[in-house]
Each structure stands twice: as structure tokens, then as C-alpha cells.
Write a structure and sequence with these properties.
This protein is mainly α. It folds into two domains: 56 residues; 86 residues, no CATH class. It is 75% helix and 0% strand. Helix 1 crosses helix 3, helix 3 crosses helix 4 and helix 4 runs antiparallel to helix 5. The radius of gyration is 19 Å and the shape is elongated. The C terminus is likely disordered.
């Protein structure tokens, strides 16, 4: 019992450190390196913290989500054009980033097409469909009209 209690205390202390570093602007990879644990462990810690914080302190959780969203937006913007141009690595990064966004908003494992309001009027739905269509166009060897004329 004492050993498990010690592990739980150590994990809680690590999560507190993760929270402090995250609030200071550190990336999950930087935090993992600094604390000497895997990136996967830090990602799990962040998700657990967000869940705990959402229950205990909604405004603080919203602040962390906003910070994560801003970082995800930067990642998407930096790769969006390349993804539309058929760059497989950029495409994969954009989709993984969108999956991360879904995760922090509690939409993990949900198909965008199944969400209420998933229509051409929904900006996220439209962006994903545009990205998938552009990639398919490149896979088939055609260049999208807006890029062919430029």
C-alpha cells in the first residue's frame, strides 16, 4: 500500500510540475525532456489535468485549452498550404493537429460527419473536407484550379 501511495504522490507532483511548465509556455516535448519522462506520459498528464481542472475549476481549464488551441492553430497555419499542395507529411500533421484539437474539446474518436451541425456552414467541417479534396486531387495527379493558375 505504501509503495502505491508513493507512486501516486510522485505522479501528482509531476502533474503539478507539468501544469506549471505548461502555463509558462513550454511544449509537451520540452516538458518531457525536462522531467525525464516520455512525451506520451506528459500528454496523458495534460489530458488528466484538463479533466481534473474542468471538474474543479472551469476558468483555469479554459485558459489551458485556449493556450493549446493557439498552439494548434499555429501548427495548422504553418502546414496548411503544403497540405493542400499534396505534401503527405504536412497533410498528416494537419490531421493529427485537428485530432488534438478534437481531443482537448472532448471530441476524441468522433467522426466530423456525425457531429450535429456538420454541414458546409460549419468552418471546421469545411476545412477538413477542403483539405481531403485537395489531397485526393494531388493523389490523382491533378493540380487544383486555384494553384494551377498561380
Amino acid at each position: 500500500m505504501g509503495l502505491q501511495n508513493g507512486k501516486a504522490i510522485k505522479a501528482q507532483e509531476r502533474r503539478y510540475q507539468v501544469l506549471q511548465l505548461k502555463k509558462a509556455g513550454a511544449s509537451e516535448r520540452d516538458i518531457a525532456q525536462q522531467l525525464g519522462v516520455s512525451h506520451t506520459q506528459i500528454n496523458k498528464d495534460v489530458h488528466r489535468l484538463l479533466g481534473d481542472m474542468a471538474k474543479a475549476n472551469k476558468p483555469a481549464a479554459d485558459n489551458v485549452r485556449a493556450l493549446q488551441n493557439a498552439r494548434y492553430d499555429e501548427m495548422i497555419q504553418s502546414r496548411w498550404v503544403k497540405a493542400l499542395q499534396g505534401d503527405d507529411d504536412a497533410f498528416d500533421l494537419v490531421l493529427k493537429t485537428m485530432t488534438g484539437i478534437n481531443s482537448i474539446w472532448g471530441l476524441r474518436g468522433i467522426d466530423i460527419k456525425d457531429l450535429p451541425g456538420s454541414s458546409p456552414d460549419n468552418p471546421l467541417y469545411t476545412s477538413i473536407m477542403e483539405l481531403q479534396q485537395a489531397r485526393q486531387t494531388y493523389v490523382e495527379g491533378e493540380q487544383p484550379k486555384e494553384l494551377a493558375s498561380g
